[in-house]
Design goal:
By secondary structure, this protein is of the alpha/beta class. The protein has 8 helices and 8 strands. The chain has an 8-stranded mixed sheet, with helices on both faces. It comes from Catenulispora acidiphila (strain DSM 44928 / JCM 14897 / NBRC 102108 / NRRL B-24433 / ID139908).
Length: 241
């Protein structure tokens, strides 16, 4: 399944002030949603990032310890481009993230600390919107995120002194989903999205990609816009939890 269907996408709700974006790797938000983040921060909303790995297995020609440092720095620079000041990392193993209580705990604790009304994740389904098999890290983190939203609101689950439960999450939206339901207009934020993605220089070089990232991003936004009144947009799946 691809994004190119005939169903119209609804406007993603905007009645929130704080968002937490939770992904497996540096670059996940840039491939999927940085343009929307730029739109949100421009509108005065507070957005934070939580990365469950440091992307250490993401560059074939670079040793993991060095890659982790490079990719963390690239992610912080990338986030700053779209107005995100808070970027946190955890040390789950890139490419081998294990489902379980530790992963849920890390996400639940972050939700309690940031107290977001919108939580953004990355595609948790078996396939991508291109029809290809989705990576195990994406699936594992996405599913754990859905569980952790409920965990965060339960006082007796993952209790930690001084960390109050947070049941104020109103919306959970997954980017890069093969089943999008909503979208965010990025007409005024394409340049920021392109610049944010371009900060991942060493990662893109490691993938063998040396061209401009503008064309593929604009192509995706334009394709999504066919279902969103012709406006360049980023699609999300709004999930009920």
């Amino acid at each position: 399944m691809t994004l190119a269907t005939t169903d119209e996408l609804a406007e993603l709700p905007s009645d929130w002030s704080r968002a937490l974006c939770v992904t497996a790797h540096p670059d996940d938000m840039e491939f999927g949603g940085a343009g929307a983040v730029a739109a949100w921060t421009t509108a005065g909303k507070d957005v934070a990032y939580l990365l469950l790995t440091r992307g250490e297995a993401g560059i074939d020609g670079m040793e993991p310890d060095q890659a982790a440092k490079v990719r963390e720095a690239e992610q912080r620079a990338s986030a700053a481009v779209v107005g995100v000041r808070t970027v946190e990392f955890r040390d789950h193993r890139d490419g081998m993230i294990e489902a379980g209580l530790g992963l849920r705990r890390d996400i639940a604790h972050a939700i309690r600390r940031f107290r977001p009304e919108l939580v953004v994740g990355y595609n948790h389904h078996e396939t991508t919107f291109t029809g290809k098999h989705n990576s195990p890290d994406h699936r594992t983190v996405g599913q754990a995120l859905l569980d952790a939203v409920g965990d965060a609101g339960n006082r007796w689950v993952f209790a930690e002194p001084g960390l109050e439960p947070w049941g104020g999450v109103k919306y959970v939206a997954m980017t890069s989903s093969p089943f999008p339901t909503h979208a965010v207009d990025v007409s005024e934020h394409v340049d920021a999205a392109v610049a944010s993605m371009a900060e991942h220089r060493e990662y893109l070089k490691g993938l063998g990609y040396t061209g401009s990232v503008r064309d593929p991003l604009v192509g995706l936004y334009t394709q999504t816009g066919l279902r969103f009144a012709g406006r360049p947009a980023i699609a999300f799946e709004l999930v009920t939890v």
